[in-house]
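User: I'm writing a short methods note and want a consistent example. For NAD(P)-binding domain-containing protein, I'll paste the sequence; you return only the structure tokens, no commentary, since I'll be parsing the reply automatically.
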Amino acid sequence: MSAVESPELLPNGAHYVKRRRDSTILNPKSYVTAELWKQAPVLKGSTKFEPLPESRNILITGGAGFIACWFVRHLTLTYPDHYNIVSFDKLDYCASLNNTRILDGCPNFTFEQGDITSPSDVKKCLRKHKIDTIFHFAAQSHVDLSFGNSYQFTNTNVYGTHVLLERAREHGIARFIHISTDEVYGDVPIGAADLSETSLLAPTNPYSASKAAAEMMVSAYRSSFKLPLITVRSNNVYGPHQFPEKIIPKFIMLLQRKSKLLVHGDGSPTRRYVYAGDIVDALDTIFHKGTIGQIYNIASKDEISNTDICHRLLEIFGLPHKSPQDFLKWVQHTEDRPFNDQRYATDGAKLAALGWQPKTSFEEGLQSTVKWYQRFGEVWWGDISRVLTPFPVVEGTEIWTKEEHDALPSDEETALGENDSLWTTKALNNLQASGGTV
Ligand SMILES: NC(=O)c1ccc[n+]([C@@H]2O[C@H](COP(=O)([O-])OP(=O)(O)OC[C@H]3O[C@@H](n4cnc5c(N)ncnc54)[C@H](O)[C@@H]3O)[C@@H](O)[C@H]2O)c1
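Assistant:
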């Protein structure tokens, strides 16, 4: 899609036309064709516990996004007679209703479009569905974007979490499970011990800082209002249904298109990876067996560098990669993030004591992820071409390459042509009616 022009209003009241040339607008409400989506496997976790008597109506924020859609499918299909699931999502650029389409006919599943930063959206939903339990996943989740668009991260991740907590406090709630990340701990030097839940938080980028700030609000609501909160900090998660802005699905789709893998920096940073089906089991375990007031790491032992991800994917795609020459036929190094943590390393003993262990090896999880993207990756979210570029820029559901976005006129340049007035007609009329002049 291209050449979209939309009249908008500047905060000072002036009109301007923001030129939105050569962008892609994603539509998270569009469905893949009937024939295709029915062929998608119904992916969920494998655990099942005795349902909690105090939980019946469960709100899952961000339910049309990656991890939450797995959890929505899991709870809806595993506990059909006990839990009613309400997926609450604003349908941002990375969401897709395809992620939960399989549930559309289930009597215990409802989708509500709403924004966690809107106190009235949240209040309406809590009341309408008599919500007693909240799983809070909704967030701006892509670190790369947080370097360019950090206000959006603070707004959604901090203020949005605050709104949910405050509305939950007013409404009354049996359990509120807040999804955080291992990134709140910051960089862990090579050779240092794995961090436990009591380690200091030391975030280093705007995304992780916003998640750490949200955790402070969670902690305050736990102390001040005795809200029954549990916080979960997970390692990196991967698997089918992840929007292809993140490294694993992005690289799969690039290889699928026979394009080079775009590796930020030298490719040496490592991350620990948990398969989506395994995090679902971990969350189900924490929900049914965890203790209110506690924090749980969800930790894996699969620590993989970005370079290693390239090797493993090239191997799966049957492309020669062992010699440096062969490797560089398929890998292009780009500039790095402004700051990139070398590694995160968390200790999972506390959750292991509740009985959870990851079941899916990285090899196995990666194989099934590749298979899914080869079949559905090109159609699930619409045109992902711009998403696959090194540093895409996102505003709402509109996406540009960095170069295209850099070439756009800034708001101010576009707003104030030589003869443009700062005054809207309405403001001007009001002013003149009161006897004033410009
Ligand atoms: N993906 C990972 O590797 C990972 C690891 C650890 C923790 N987490 C955390 O898990 C959660 C989910 O991550 P994900 O990767 O599945 O994210 P995602 O980006 O795939 O999904 C986020 C969802 O939140 C929705 N959303 C965004 N802003 C919203 C708003 N204002 N109101 C309502 N909905 C809104 C989006 O539409 C989207 O569906 C996040 O809190 C993230 O910080 C993710």
